[in-house]
Each structure stands twice: as C-alpha cells, then as structure tokens.
Amino acid sequence: MNESNKTGRDPLDEALASLPESIAPQRDLWPQIRAEIEQTPIAAPKSVVQSNWFRLAAAVLLVLATSFVTYYVTRQSMQQQVAQVTPEAAPAPQLTGQPASFTFGRERLGAGYMNARAELDKRFKERLAALPPADRAKVEKNLADLRHAADEISATLAQHPSDPLLQDLLMSTYQSELQLLANVSDLPTAGSMRTDL
Amino acid sequence: MTTGAATHSSALTADRSSLSDSALVAAARKGDMRAFERLYRLHSGKVMGLCLRMTRRHDVAEDCVQQTFIRAWRSLAAFEGRSAFGTWLHRIAVNEVLTHQRNHGTRAESDEEAVADATAEPLESQRAYDAGEVMDVERALATLPPGSRHVVVLQTVYGYSHEEVADMLGIAVGTCKAQLHRGRRLLRERMGLPETADE
Known about the structure:
Radius of gyration of chain A: 30 Å
Largest interface: A-B, 36 and 45 residues
Largest sheet of chain A: none
Structural class of chain B: mainly alpha
CATH superfamily of the largest domain in chain B: RNA polymerase sigma factor, region 2, helix turn helix motif
Structural class of chain A: mainly alpha
Oligomer: heterodimer
CATH class of the largest domain in chain B: Mainly Alpha
Number of domains of chain B: 2
Order of helices and strands of chain A: HHHHHHH
Number of helices of chain B: 10
Distance between the termini of chain A: 102 Å
CATH architecture of the largest domain in chain B: Orthogonal Bundle
Number of helices of chain A: 7
Distance between the termini of chain B: 59 Å
Largest sheet of chain B: none
Number of strands of chain A: 0
C-alpha cells in the first residue's frame, strides 16, 4: 500500500476503524418502547407444549366458528320447517350428549357443569332428532370436532398437567361443547312452532 | 414455571450488571421487562450508530431504533441464539432502515439498480460537500450514495463479512463488493487520501 502510514495500515481503514460503533440517541427512547411493548404480550419460547397449544387453539377456533354457522343454519331451517313438519319421528340419533373426553380435569368442571349437561343432553337428543338430516349432520360433525379437539387437548394435558394454558383451553372447549348443546336444545320443537301458528 | 421465573428475577436483582446477553434474553423471554430494558441500555447505542449512519437523520434513526426494539421484543421467541443477540438486533435494525427507505423511495429496489448505483457517479444532490474540502471520515461517510454507504458502514464499521452484508441488505455478494469498492474510492477522494492501486 503506497499510502500506508507508519503503523503500516491504510489510513482509510484506520479512519474507519476509529469511528465509534455506538452513538447515543439524543433522547431516551425506552419510555416509548416500553409503552408500546407493554401492550404486546411476549410470545412464549417455542416448545412442544406451545406448538401443540397453538395447533389445538386453532382447531378449537375453527370448530367454534363452524358451530356458530351451524347454529344459525339450523335455526333458519327450523323456521322454514314450520309449515312442513312431518309428524313421523326422525330416526333416533346416534349421537349422545356425553362428551368424548372426560378423563382429564373432570373434577375441575364441577357438579354444575355435569348437571347442566345431563339436562341438556335430554333436550338435545329431542331437538337433534327433529332437525332436517343435513342440519343434523352439520351439528353432529361440529360436536364431533369439538370432542376430538377436547380429546387432543386432554391427551396433551395428561403429559403436561401443570400447563395453565392447556387447562384453560380444555375448559374453554368443554364450555363450547356445552354452548353448542344449549344452542341446539334451545331450538323450538316442530310441535311447539306449529302450536304457535 | 413460576418458581423458575422468580428465581431468575432474584438473580437479576442480585447482579444485573454482570449478566450476559443470553441470561437477559432468557429473562426477557419470560416477560421480564427490566431484563429487556437492560438489553436496550446495552445495545441501543450500537443500534443507533448503525441506523444513524445508514439513514443520516437523527429523527429517522431514532424511529428505527425504537421499532427495532419493539420488533425484537415481539420476536424474542424466535431468537434461537445461533448468532449473538447484538447481531440479531442489527439485522432487525437494517431491515427497519430498509423498510423505511423503501417506503420513502430512497432505496435501490433491485440488484440491477444497486449495481447501477454502485457504478454511477454521484448525483448532484449527493454532493453535499464542497469540492476540494478535506472531510473527516464521518462526514465523508454521510456523503456516500445510500447503497455504498450501507455496505461501507456494515462492513468496515461494524465488521460484517461480504456474505453477511449481502444477506442483510438483500443484494448479491458481487454487488456488495462493487458497492464497497465504490464507497472506499469516494471516501478517499473526499478525505483527500490518495487512491490505492486496487481502487
């Protein structure tokens, strides 16, 4: 290097190397950063439990969404059915109100849940039988999906019993199942609608 | 889980200053805001230096620093520790700067444009210096066209390799080398240093 200085280094390299890497901001940016991130819950580190949780949560959300759609579809269907209800009883439903997954965390649900379920179960069977076949199939599918999700959550929870997120998710899934049963059970029966007419 | 977090918190309180980045990151990932603040205090200067030299504007640089740490917080779970935390932050910061410049139309959008930028003479608007003036290196750096400036800053000030810089900036390694070559030539010219044989 023909312009190397006495240290043997290129003066340009020396000048660049002399630049400080750090330059303090003119104001403290932390308060604004803090204000912003306080509104953002930090994403937990990736783990098997976490990835399972997200997958399960996504499944439950999907099921919930379809359940609500089904609820409205069946409600509409029942209203249209008013003038054309057939007196024959529909085939007995294969579906029961018994949740598929009740082995884990059952005690957490309490007697209130179990009593509510028992009452709902009876009405649910009656209303389900009165639904048109297409609507009944949708309800059955959504309920099966919910119970499948509960099974998965329950199995994961059995491996990680202290995970509060999984516990909450399982409870939420049971509640969703209960809500679905309640929605169907609250549908007016064909007979009662006819009477109202 | 709670016990672990509590233990970690106690450790932080006991001797926060001696904690390594990895310990602070681990605490921050558990939601410890004080650990993350410590990381901010430790790294904000370097991130600011990087952003300021890339953007040349204090207000824009500070916005980029702010966004960098916000984004870092949100992405802490994705930080796998394969690189140093500082390097990871720098990547986020470079991305913030490029996003800002893209949104404001000051970044060459493609490799072809970057090569053209590297080989072209500076525009009049970039001649923010008096002909014949001998500048100090910081001022000379600020007069470089963006493409060259970014490469020179990342490579010669912050010590990243051609490959790392190319990856950070989303350009080819060859483009990176061309930008560095041009940047160094312009710096010599503006600092009144004679050219080397290879420049």
